[in-house]
Each structure stands twice: as structure tokens, then as C-alpha cells.
Amino acid sequence: MSTREALRPVQGIAAIVGFLVCVELASGVLQGYYTPVYSDIADHLSIADADVNWFEAAQLVVSALVVPPLARLGDLVGHKKVLLLSTAVTAVGSWVLAVAPSFTTFLIGWAVQGAYVVWLPLEIAIIHRRTAGTGRQALLTRRAAAILVGALELAVIIGALTSGALVEATSMGVLLALPAVVVTVVLVVIWFGIEDDAGQATGGYDWGGLALVTAAIGLVMGGLICIRVQGPDSVLAWLLVLAGLVALVPFARYEAAQSEPMVDVRLLATPGQWPVQLTAFLFGMSVLGAQIPLSTFARTDPDTAGYGLGADASFVSTLIGVYVVFLAIGAFTLPLTSRALGPRGALVLGALLVALGYALWLPLHDSTGQALLNMAVAGVGSGALVAALPATAAAAAPPDRTGFATGMTNATKTVGGAIASSVFAICLASTGSIDDPTEGHAPLSGYLAVWAICAVAGLLAALALLLLPRRATGQPVTS
After folding, report:
1. Distance in angstroms (rounded) separating the CA atoms of residues 179 and 156
2. DSSP characters over 107-138
3. φ and ψ at 45, to 5 degrees?
4. CB contact at 8 A, 442 and 428
5. pLDDT winner (highest mean) among 47-61, 244-258, 440-454
């Protein structure tokens, strides 16, 4: 094969990655755009600021429920088709937000918008399949994942800055319509820019498995929402969580007996998958569950509570911005750390940095400089994990299960974040409210518990990743 012929596949991959970067830019806008204007949205809908927390709960539930069926559908009919479908659903949800006349309508639109959570796993699956036959499938997939996640994190900053600048200059309707326009444009980009692909999976759609996994996740999530609303003393909440956990037993048995399951529990139990999926779950505890506690701690007045940074909203935005910048750095440098340490070593380093970043909060939480240092360390590790986990899952999956494997990293991460969010709410609810810090202040010990849990979760993830076979990461075995 000539050099020119060898370069053609790589050049084609570069074009596809370029179009998929547009998708991740839209994803970043969705994830960063609304955060600075939550209070303004609450005023627009005539609701209390604390009710904004329902947005997070609703979208976490939808995200956890839609990933497995959409990922399986991508393996069956083609990943581009499902990427188009999920983008169309996200666009509908985004437009509902722009015209919603009430809190209930807005909440429905917000939940529907959560379909975007499957974008990155589907994109990784597209790239992984497109690189087959290049001889560098795992390497090219990791590099592409780093670019996509880097673009995502940069777009989070752009989205946050844009909404913060426009909120006083335009109406809420126009402000909320801009993300909908972005997602609609991306729908056209996917339609014309990404080549169609046929699904490689065989068999039908496992409706029984879908019903069982929906019931299990729905019960657990419902219980966690009850804990947030009624408190840890709620009997109903714990009964729902227990019922969801018990439902996993017949679900696992049913899926193990299927030739083409919705959730391939046998694949998830393989040495190349379970450390990755467990890491995603543990990582979700910090990357998704710890953001509200960090924000409320930063806003707490030390003269009143005896701790906190006494920061205003603009500094909280700065803190988030620093974190996101270092997320991008962690993602963009993933190819370099993978080359130096190997793919498995890069994953372990990322998990250890997350653990270190949150562990630093235990002694260092008295100044803004210390807060920025802590979030920078955790951000680098988090960025590496966001980029590497789906790529590693794809490398350890058969060709007809790449969409499922990459999608499950997002599903398990979301479930981990939801569980941590409820646990952290309990930690901070002793003398105050996590929903509205003006109602009271949680004890410092509650925040210390949050950071300790995140640090331990990162350390456990690093230990789990040490058990990941080198072959599962696409790295040749040399020993």
C-alpha cells in the first residue's frame, strides 16, 4: 500500500472528527449556558430558587434511562441514525424551554433535553468503527476522544460567558432560544457531514430487558429524589431504593439468558469492561455530584458560618471556569500521557489526580487561591477520564457492541452522580439546606465528608483500573 493510500482513511477520520466537534460544541453550550442564569430562569418562571434543583433531578433520571436503549439501537441500526434521533429530541426539548409558559412545561422540556447525554458515546462508537482497518484503531480513537472532550469543555466556558453577557441585554425568550438554534444547526451538520453506517449487531430489540432496566433505574432514581425532597428519614424513599436494587437480580438473570440483550451483563463482567464501568460510576460521584456543594461552600460567608470563601456569583463562575479549563487541558493532553504511561497508566493517573484534587480540600479550604489549586488538580484528572473512559470501553468491546459499551460509561457515571447528589444532600442537611444556603449553613464537617467521599472514590477508581488488562486498552502486551 502506498503512503497516499494509507493516509486516505486518516484524512477521512479527520473530517468526521471535525463535524463531530460541532456536536460537542453544542453539547458544551447546553452544559454551560444555563448555569449563570438559573436565578433569572427562576424569576422568569415565578418559582423559588430551590425549585431549580428539580431540573437536575429530572435530567439525571432521563439521562440514566435513555442511554442503554439508544446505545443498543445504535448498534442495531447505525450510530449516525441514533445520533440524529437524539439530536432531534434534544432540539425539541431546547425549543420547549424557549417558549415554556410555566414551571411544569419547562421541567418537561429540560428532561427531554437530557437526550444529549448519549452524544459523546455515539461519537466515540462512530470513530472507533471508522478507524477499523487502520492498524491504529485504539490510538486514533483516544486522540479523537481527547479532541472532542476538549472542544466540549471549551464550549462550556463559551456558553457560560455568553449567557452571562446577554441576560441583561435581551429578553428571556430570546436568551433561551439561542441554545435551541445551536442544536438545530448541529442537526443539519450531522445529517450532511457524517456518513451513514449500517448497524453491526444482530437480533431484535430486547423489550423485556428495556422494561426491567427501566424499572430498576426508575425505582432507584425515584427513591433518591424522595430522599432529596423528604429527607433521609423517609421510609418511602428507602423502600423505593431497596426495590430498585432488588429488581437488578431478575434483570441480570434475564439479560444473561438472552442472546441479544439490551444490557449485555456478560460483557460488562469481562476484565476489560468492569473496571472501566466501575470507574465511571465512581467518577460520576465527583464530576456530577459535587458541583452544588462546591458552589454553596464558595458562596458561604466565613464571618457568619465560620468557614467558606464569601465569594459572589462572579467568582463562582471563575471557579467553574478554571475547573473547565483544566478539564480541557486534561483531555487535550491525554494522547501525551497515554504515550508516556500507556493507556492504562494514563487512566490511573487521571483517577489519582481526581482523588488528590478533592483530598486537597480537606486541609486547604480557607482561601480562593487554595480553591483554585484544588479544582485545577481535580480538573486535569477529570478531563482525562471523560475522554479516556468511553474510548477504553470501545477498545475492549466487540464491533457490534461498541455503542453499548461507550454508552454504559455515561449511564453508570450518571447513576453515580445521582446517588452521590443525594448522599451529599444528607451530609449537608444537618443544620442547613443544600437547596438554598440562605436558609442556614451546613456544618463544615458535612463539606469535609463530601470531599473525603470524592477523594476515596477517585482512589478506588485508580485501584480498579490497575486490574484492567493492557490488551483491553488497545495497548500491545509486552510482558
Report:
1. 12
2. HHHHHHHGGGGGHHHHHHHHHHHHTTTSS-HH
3. -95, 0
4. yes
5. 244-258
- What is the chain's alpha carbon radius of gyration, rounded to the nearest angstrom? 21
Say which residue the cell 486518516 belongs to: 10
The residue type found at 354 is: V
Q: Give DSSP secondary structure letters for 424-461.
A: HHHHT-SSS-SS-GGG----HHHHHHHHHHHHHHHHHH
30, 373 contact by CB (below 8 A)? no
Whether residue 208 has pLDDT greater than 70: yes
Q: Are 82 and 407 in contact (CB under 8 A)?
A: no
> Which residue has 484503531 as its cell numbers?
137
Q: Which three cell numbers stand for residue 79?
A: 450510530
Does 2 have pLDDT greater than 50? Answer: no
Q: Would you state the pLDDT for residue 401? A: 79
Query: Considering the entire predicted model, what is its pTM?
Result: 0.77
Mean pLDDT of the chain: 81
Q: What is the pLDDT of residue 352?
A: 96
Task: Look at residue 438 and tell me whether its pLDDT is greater than 50.
Answer: no
Of 186-200, 254-268, 447-461, the one with minimum mean pLDDT is 186-200
How many C-beta neighbours within 10 Å does residue 372 have?
16
Pick from 373, 387, 393: nearest CA to 473: 393
Task: Please measure the distance between the N-terminal and C-terminal CA atoms of the chain and give it in whole angstroms.
Answer: 31
Q: Which amino acid is at 275?
A: P
> pLDDT band at 444, cuts 50/70/90?
confident
Is residue 296 classed as helix, strand or coil in its secondary structure? helix
The DSSP output letter for 168 is T
What is the spatial distance between Cα 452 and Cα 433, in angstroms, rounded to a whole number?
20
For residue 329, give Cα distances in angstroms to 156, 333, 352, 384, 458: 14, 6, 16, 8, 19
Quote the CA–CA distance of 185 and 180 in Å, as a whole number.
9
- How many Å apart are CA 475 and CA 139, to the nearest integer? 9
Torsion from C-alpha of 167, 43, 223, 233, nearest 10 degrees: 130
Composition of the chain by helix, strand, coil, percent to 5: 80, 0, 20
pLDDT at 261: 81
Whether the per-residue pLDDT at 3 is higher than 70: the answer is: no
Quote the Cα angle for 142-148-154, to 5°: 135
CB-CB contact of 53 with 39 (8 Å): no
Instruction: Give the count of alpha carbons within 13 A of 28, CB side only.
Output: 26
The CA distances from residue 364 to 114, 285, 371, in Å, are: 35, 21, 7
C-alpha cell at 432: 442547613
* Calpha distance 127→137 (Å, rounded): 9
Q: Which of the two residues, 9 and 398, has the higher pLDDT score?
A: 398
